[in-house]
Specification:
Blueprint (H helix, E strand, L loop, with lengths): L1 E7 L2 E7 L21 H4 L2 E6 L4 E6 L14 E6 L5 E7 L4 H4 L7 E5 L2 E2 L5 H9 L4 E7 L2 E7 L7
Antiparallel strand pairs: 1-2, 3-4, 5-6, 6-7, 7-8, 7-9, 9-10
Length: 157
């Protein structure tokens, strides 16, 4: 979802994408929290960890006021290409093209433009979704393969 603002340690961030998880397995399998801070947030702070006293200090750095780059995917996914050979859809933006083409949470994206996702590294992933071209995705859902065409959305900052 798009957040208007959030305050972390007394510092307010504005107009950014945020997410939360209802996942009850894996890294987020706890009722103590509902999500994690991503790099888009952490890159804006210098972090000092005091292991002895168990403190974390944060201080805004030169990137703090940089505009956030908003996602163009219209959905979020978890890269599980090494374990499941797929990217698993974990969230959908309401009324996005991804939702309109019928993409669903837990769908497994196995190929994009005929290339297995196991062959697409992290930097290539970002590049794929920053282009304004139609992506042909092969999806595994309930043991059936589907083919969908998807064009990343354009979001204004």
């Amino acid at each position: 979802f798009l957040a208007n603002s959030a305050t972390i340690g007394g510092y307010t961030l504005k107009h950014f994408e945020a997410g939360f998880s209802l996942d009850k397995s894996g890294a987020l399998a706890s009722d103590n929290y509902t999500g994690i801070l991503g790099n888009e947030i952490l890159d804006r702070f210098d972090l000092i960890i005091d292991f002895k006293n168990k403190y974390l200090y944060i201080k805004p750095n030169n990137s703090f006021n940089d505009p956030f780059l908003l996602s163009r995917t219209g959905f979020s996914y978890v890269d599980r290409s090494e374990t499941y050979g797929a990217w698993i859809v974990s969230g959908l933006d309401e009324k996005s093209p991804a939702e309109k083409i019928g993409l669903k949470i837990d769908d497994r994206i196995t190929e994009i433009n005929g290339v297995p996702v196991t062959d697409i590294d992290f930097m290539m992933q970002k590049e794929l979704f920053n282009r304004q071209e139609v992506l042909k995705m092969k999806i595994l859902r309930n043991n059936n393969y589907l083919s969908v065409e998807y064009k990343p959305v354009t979001l204004l900052e």
